[in-house]
Amino acid sequence: MTNEEIEKIIESWKNHLATGGMEDFKLEIEHNVPKEFAAIALYMDSKTVKASGGNEDYYEGYRQASIDVLNVIGVQMAQDDQTKTITLFRKESNDAKQEELKKHIWG
Question: CA 94, CA 84: separation in Å to the nearest integer?
């Protein structure tokens, strides 16, 4: 994916979703999220929102597929209504969580 394609996806997402009640929101992409992964996440988010206007079965299938793809690439999105920010960040793997839990329990 070229930088131009990535920027086009980001702009398309902003034009589609950052409107109406969300026009004051800003997008933050954490430094450890590869740009290609961020573009995939934003593309999937936009497509899922568009699918929500259609057939419910289609939407649920698309939503689950989007969640599965984001899980595979390890990216999550979070919306903070207080700071009006939508953040893309790397999802902790289960292995990392298990190691943290072990350290917490056994020191």
Answer: 29
Question: How far apart (Å, rounded) are the C-alpha atoms in residues 74 and 85?
Answer: 20
Question: What distance in Å separates the CA atoms of residue 79 and residue 91, rounded to the nearest whole number?
Answer: 15
Identify the DSSP state of 22: G
Per-residue pLDDT tens digits for 20-42: 778 888 999 999 999 999 999 88
C-alpha angle 50-55-57 in degrees, rounded to nearest 5: 110
Query: How many domains does one find in the chain?
Result: 1
Q: What is the pLDDT of residue 59?
A: 63
Q: 39: domain range? A: 3-106
Tell me: pLDDT of 10 over 70: yes
